[in-house]
């Protein structure tokens, strides 16, 4: 498939979503190209035309397409040709002899074409080109409060369904809207950021200062409600992106993480580890010997709950088993401690570190542990952990198990969670399970 309709949004009417990509070759997917040679004796003339001009995916009602032909078509024969590629569930409706409307029900993909469909006068036909449109899969978002779950109450804090590609996702402070955007690690050219009200599916377009669907290193809200975007630069604006303004450059940045208080932003990339003061726009480089290693993607940063300390974990230029963490005092920019052989995942509410020790090789199982600042250690049986923003709760997954456990760090109380989907923490400290249905068709 060359031209998917990305995301649940309205395509620009000026964009020919049926046009071929750079590797598709000639043709536009529904009618012959105007570059076809003139009619010769014994040949059939193929006239100029355009592919589908507008596609409007809808999260609940399916997909509406319009095929525009350059000449009057043989309606029964053309409808039969389109039905062969589109399938029996697609409804066809002629507006006139040159305009065929299609409506596909909710689902995965719909292929659109009219191979061999003749013109009304019998002097032209559609070449066998087919364009496939893919709709995004349905996602189910379910919110729970961890205190309710630990008390044995499986109460929903909210549940919504919305069709979207696996873009970057950040739940808004209101708990019902979400920001979808092209995230780090995704290909460029994705949809612009959009704010979706999950209960209704209403989409609010957002500014896209990163230009051209380039990925963002971070996109979300600060505790005071301002929107923070980090791409080629750092931008701050109102809750819906209003008044968005550039406050710093971010060229070469691979990691971006705001502090829990929203005062600072950690930036790590080719310039080194930097801290940006989001109030004054002052940018400082941490004077420590951080290494980039063979794969920068494995490096990580983590903030202490009060935002006064910052950890930076890096790897040596070997096979990935030489790992080191520096703890930096943000006020002075000076490292206060170095931890050899372990990387920090997050901080607990009590100030201890959730750390990770790699195995003897990049393919060996590592070890998760709690590491106190005084050096005391407590090994965990889990192979994966996710800590709530306030550090009071943890999600743990043990070896050989597909489900997660919820742990209250202060009391040690835990409960198994058998919910479908992948869990994530919201900024408000609630649990969000995201279940993604695969595309059909």
**Total count of strands:** 34
The N- and C-terminal alpha carbons lie at a distance of 12 Å
Integer-rounded radius of gyration: 27 Å
Largest sheet data: 4 strands, antiparallel
Number of helical segments? 2
Characterize the quaternary organization of these chains: single chain
Biggest sheet: strands side by side, in what order? 1-2-4-3
Uncertain ranges = 1-60
Structural class: mainly beta
Proportion in helices: under 10%
Proportion of strand residues: 35-45%
Overall geometry comes to: elongated
Report mean pLDDT, rounded to a whole number. 77
Describe this structure in words.
The strands form nine sheets. Strands 1-2-4-3 form a four-stranded antiparallel sheet, covered by helices on one side. It has a four-stranded antiparallel sheet with strand order 8-7-34-33. The chain has a four-stranded antiparallel sheet with strand order 9-10-11-12, with no helix packed on it. Mean pLDDT is 77; it is low at 1-60. The protein has 441 residues and is mainly beta. The chain contains two helices and 34 strands. Strand 19 (272-277) and strand 20 (283-285) form a beta hairpin.
Provide key terms for this protein:
4-stranded antiparallel β-sheet; about 450 residues; mainly beta; 34 strands
Quick description:
The protein is mostly beta strands and 441 residues long. It is built from 2 helices and 34 strands. It has a 4-stranded antiparallel beta sheet, with helices on one face. Strands 8-7-34-33 form a 4-stranded antiparallel beta sheet.
């Amino acid at each position: 498939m060359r031209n998917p309709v990305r995301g649940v949004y309205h395509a620009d009417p000026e964009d020919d979503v049926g046009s071929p990509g750079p590797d598709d070759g000639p043709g536009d997917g529904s009618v012959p190209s105007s570059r076809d040679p003139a009619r010769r004796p014994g040949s059939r003339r193929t006239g100029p035309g355009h592919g589908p001009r507008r596609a409007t995916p809808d999260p609940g009602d399916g997909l509406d397409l319009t095929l525009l032909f350059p000449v009057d078509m043989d309606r029964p024969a053309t409808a039969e040709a389109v039905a062969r590629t589109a399938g029996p569930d697609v409804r066809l409706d002629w507006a006139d002899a040159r305009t065929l409307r299609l409506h596909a029900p909710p689902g995965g993909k719909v292929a659109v074409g009219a191979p061999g469909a003749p013109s009304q006068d019998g002097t032209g036909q559609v070449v066998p080109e087919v364009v496939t449109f893919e709709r995004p899969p349905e996602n189910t978002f379910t919110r729970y409060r961890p205190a309710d779950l630990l008390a044995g109450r499986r109460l929903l804090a909210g549940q919504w369904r919305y069709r979207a590609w696996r873009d970057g996702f950040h739940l808004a402070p209101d708990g019902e809207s979400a920001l979808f955007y092209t995230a780090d690690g995704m290909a460029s050219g994705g949809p612009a950021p959009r704010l979706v009200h999950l209960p209704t599916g209403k989409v609010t377009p957002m500014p896209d200062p990163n230009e051209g669907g380039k990925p963002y290193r971070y996109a979300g809200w600060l505790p005071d409600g301002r929107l923070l975007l980090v791409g080629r630069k750092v931008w701050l604006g109102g809750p819906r992106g209003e008044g968005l303004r550039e406050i710093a450059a971010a060229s070469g940045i691979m990691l971006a993480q705001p502090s829990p208080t929203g005062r600072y932003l950690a930036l790590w990339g080719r310039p080194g580890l930097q801290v940006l003061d989001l109030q004054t726009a002052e940018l400082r480089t941490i004077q420590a010997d951080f290494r980039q290693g063979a794969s920068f993607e494995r490096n990580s940063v983590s903030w202490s709950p009060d935002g006064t300390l910052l950890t930076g974990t890096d790897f040596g230029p070997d096979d990935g088993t030489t790992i080191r963490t520096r703890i930096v005092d943000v006020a002075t920019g000076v490292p206060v401690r170095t931890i050899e052989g372990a990387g920090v995942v997050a901080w607990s509410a009590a100030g201890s570190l959730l750390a990770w020790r790699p195995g003897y090789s990049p393919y060996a199982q590592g070890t998760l542990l709690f590491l106190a600042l005084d050096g005391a250690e407590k090994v965990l049986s889990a192979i994966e952990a996710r800590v709530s923003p306030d550090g009071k709760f943890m999600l743990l997954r043990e070896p050989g198990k597909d489900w997660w456990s919820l742990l209250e760090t202060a009391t040690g109380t835990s409960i198994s969670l058998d919910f479908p989907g992948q869990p994530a923490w919201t900024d408000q400290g609630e649990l969000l399970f995201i279940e993604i249905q695969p595309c059909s068709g």
